[in-house]
Amino acid sequence: MRILLFGCDGQVGWELQRALAPLGEVLAIGRAGRNGLVGDLADGEGIARTVRTVSPEVIVNAAAYTAVDRAESEPELAHAINGRAPGILAREAKATGAWLVHYSTDYVFDGSGEKPWVENDPTSPLNVYGASKLEGEAAIRESGCRHLIFRTSWVYARRGRNFIHTMLRLAQERETLKVVNDQIGAPTGADLIADVTAHAVRAVGSSTEALAGTYHLAARGETSWWAYARLVIDAARSLGAPLQASPETVLAVPSEEFPTSAARPRNSRLATAKLERTFGLALPLWESGVVRTVTEIVQCQANGIHQP
Ligand code: NDP
């Protein structure tokens, strides 16, 4: 199987390089491109040429404009990368019969209520990022290409910029932290997303388009950013990390105390039954992946290993 991966340097893209490798030949390409192939999603014609040149059976798009607050002041760029570029990849996939695997977000929902969102619930994004991701989803569906869209939430990894790294840095610098406790979701590891993707790609490779569609992919369980921060700090301290803050000095505050350019949904719960049923998977509890990642980060820091 020949797989073309865009966005190979991001949190999910990096893990996909590992997880997809046993499935066949993986051509992994970042924003800067590779061997004359364009990887910048802002260059629509360029990425179309890349797909035609590589002629993959599966295109995986892990590249995205993920700066949620900055998107409010750069809506055109966010829509170009998250909205139009996936449509171009989808058009190319349709032309050759390739599968397109793409990632989207809980931010396509408005965050109302307390029930986990199911795939066909009405969407209504609160911010530019969410609207741009929704545009990408729609473009893929409208193209008629065979596709898998995985909506995920609160992504973290050992490598990359994410909440775990931010909390560990702040806990080193300060005795007290304030973290919002009224947004609920499931922290989801990039490694889990990549492993599920590989499993699904293998399944669709031997199947018709019956498995095509949109799936919610998040770790099991739910938490607030506040409780998540407490677990990160607790796990790091128990490994001997030199932190000033402790779980007891992480203070719960409402979202209003942290005004951000982009509004965030309160309810980011994603129901994953469709994914688990369709692909025969059991998603792990969110805590296990978080503790594993904190352990890796703390051990790297203790050994003086730089985190990219
Ligand atoms: P990251 O921000 O870690 O990675 C995104 C990657 O896309 C980066 O390598 C970035 O490169 C690259 N990129 C940005 N702009 C372009 C461009 N114009 N052309 C090519 N590459 C570009 O994101 P994640 O790995 O966390 O996200 C993977 C997917 O999951 C995305 O679709 C995202 O929308 C979705 N998602 C992410 C969530 C999260 O919490 N992070 C939550 C829910 C969904 P560079 O570093 O150079 O900017």
Task: Write up what this structure looks like.
This protein has 308 residues and is an alpha/beta fold. Helix content is 40%, strand content 16%. It is built from nine helices and twelve strands. A six-stranded parallel beta sheet has the order 2-1-3-4-5-10, with helices on both faces. The chain has a two-stranded parallel sheet with strand order 6-9. A two-stranded parallel sheet has the order 7-12. Strand 1, helix 1 (11-20) and strand 2 (25-29) form a beta-alpha-beta unit. Helix 5 crosses helix 7 (225-238). The longest helix has 22 residues, at 75-96. It starts with a strand and ends in a 6-residue tail after the last helix. The mean pLDDT is 96. The structure holds NADPH dihydro-nicotinamide-adenine-dinucleotide phosphate (NDP).
Strand order of the largest sheet: 2-1-3-4-5-10
| Shape estimate | globular
Give the helix/strand class. alpha/beta
Please give the count of helices.
Answer: 9
State the helicity in percent bands. Answer: 40-55%
List cofactors, ions and other ligands. Answer: NADPH dihydro-nicotinamide-adenine-dinucleotide phosphate
Number of E-type strands: 12
Mean pLDDT: 96
Biggest sheet statistics: 6 strands, parallel
% residues in beta strands: 15-25%
Order of helices and strands: EHEHEHEHEEHEEEHEEHEHH
> End-to-end distance, in Å?
30 Å
Gyration radius from CA atoms, angstroms: 19 Å
- Low-confidence runs: none
